[in-house]
Amino acid sequence: MKAAPQSQQRLLDLQELDAALDRSAHRRRTLPETAEIERLEGRLTELRDAVVTAETEVSDLDREQKKAEQDVDQVRTRAERDQQRLDSGMVTSAKDLANLQSEIASLRRRQSDLEEVVLEIMERREEADARAARLRTEREEAGRELTSVTERRDAAWKEIDEEVAATGAARTAVAKDVPDDLMALYEKLRAQFGGVGAAALHRGRCQGCHLALNTVDLNRIRAAAQDEVVRCEECRRILIRTPESGL
Question: Measured between alpha carbons, how far is residue 134 from residues 9, 140, 243 in Å?
């Protein structure tokens, strides 16, 4: 392949710009904010689920407490009714009086037991309510943190995108100075060799693979015409000759 020395030199400028674009793309992919956002989104999902579970528990305990309080009221009402019968003097039979007094005592014990149940449920509900409140607070804090990190990521993305736009414009201008066939070879090699398609020959060493060329290869390159596109025998990248090539 033939190309004017000036066109070949432009490949080094192009390679530098492409390397900058690759670095920008890598930075965009690996922003620490991106990983932090992923972590916070996962945490928020966990907290939302936990809040729903805690609030459901509170709701269940509310119903349980209401049912227990209704049971207390029923027993209290019945005991009060029996006490009124006892106090009214309407029951005169000794046996009936004994039975009524026994029932009242049983109802009082039952009422006391049910009131203990209500207190236990109230304690559990208070704990569940506090847990739900704490989880809601954590959810809100995680949401604010996610918003803040997202804003930082978006600002970083904007900065990177602006850099990419400027570098891309510069690359377009440089690419106009490179013949199509040389550009096609360069792009092919870039795809094959980790984004580096052309490298300078510096003091007898390829800057692409960083290996020193042997004497035979250096003599071959030394003898090649200035417009001949030469390749590194080790890595096959395009070698660009410069005054520092050591030829």
Answer: 65, 10, 70
Strand partners, 205: 202, 212
Q: Is 151 exposed, middle or buried (0-12, 13-18, 19+ CB in 10 A)?
A: exposed
Residue 24 CB coordination number (10 Å) = 18
Cα–Cα distance measured from residue 82 to residue 102, given in angstroms and rounded to the nearest whole number:
10
CA distance 45 to 90: 67
Average of per-residue pLDDT across 26-49: 96
Residue 68 is which amino acid?
A
Beta-carbon contacts of 54 under 8 Å, excluding residues fewer than 6 positions away, are: 128, 131, 132, 135
Identify the three-state secondary structure at position 228: strand
Q: Provide the whole-model pTM.
A: 0.72
Domains of the chain, with CATH numbers? 5-25+179-241 (no CATH), 31-166 (1.10.287.1700)
